Amino acid sequence: MANQPHLVLLTGAAGRIGTRLRELLPAYGYRLRCFDRLPVPGEPEAITADLRDAEALAGAMDGVDAVVHLAGIPGEAPFADILAANIDGTYRLFDAARAAGVRRIVNASSNHAVGFTERPADAGIVPVDTPQRPDTYYGLSKCFGENLASLYADRHGIETVSLRIGSFADEPGGIRALGTWLSPGDCARLVHAALTGPVSGHTIVYGISANTRAWWDLSTARALGYQPRDDAEDFAEELLAKLGELPADDPEYRYLGGRFTR
Fold it and tell me: CA 214 to CA 76: how far, in whole Å?
């Protein structure tokens, strides 16, 4: 594709999602430069540093076409920790990208940005324009990341995509995940679409596979060119036989944030 970036900075490259993307994204033609505060083994371009290391971050941006930003604490933690890693760290990442003239940033958000939103009574699809309603300090940090992405799109002209990632795993791990699962293969397909699809300003997309029982609207993701292939329904019979249906008043079923709302 003519607009496909060649050199992509992948932050959080040693993490759970980052590790799988390191395996899968090069097949789409990307050269990855990896950034993490932990060592990233086996990568020719790996930078071990904290996002608050301004010199290391500026060097990491040299020659970069786009950024996939996964770095941060991947769950609830004391506010001071979330503030340092997920809020201040994300600000520093965006501003370093702006200073370096990076064209596009794909930002890892989460369903926890809207976690206290209740599912529709008819269990219908939740739209992308659902107002933010975070369920934790972690979810609050994802709201900040989405709003920062919007600001940098409007003020600085950077193309930004926020991915509200659902239940990322090799296989769905429970009944809730039958609607919220994102497979590694579809995650790579979604990130590729976010890096190459048509973006005007800031775009929010939900990150799930082509689940028969999908909770969230994939229209904005599909508009980027996302074509998911996997379906959690392939695991439904086994999971339901083992675990049974979730009661309607269980937070795992009732709220978009699931157990984070307990």
Answer: 25
Contact 189, 27 (CB under 8 A): no
pTM of the model: 0.96
pLDDT band for position 3 (50/70/90)?
low
Domains and CATH numbers, the chain: 7-261 (3.40.50.720)
Within 10 A of 154 (CB to CB), how many other CB atoms are there? 12
Catalytic one of 138, 152, 206, 226: 138
CB 18 within 8 A of CB 12: yes
Catalytic residue flag (residue 91): no
Query: In the 8-state DSSP scheme, what is residue 70?
Result: -
C-alpha dihedral, 193 to 198 to 202 to 207, nearest 10°: -20
Which residues contact residue 83 at a Cβ distance below 8 angstroms, ignoring those fewer than 6 apart?
A: 141
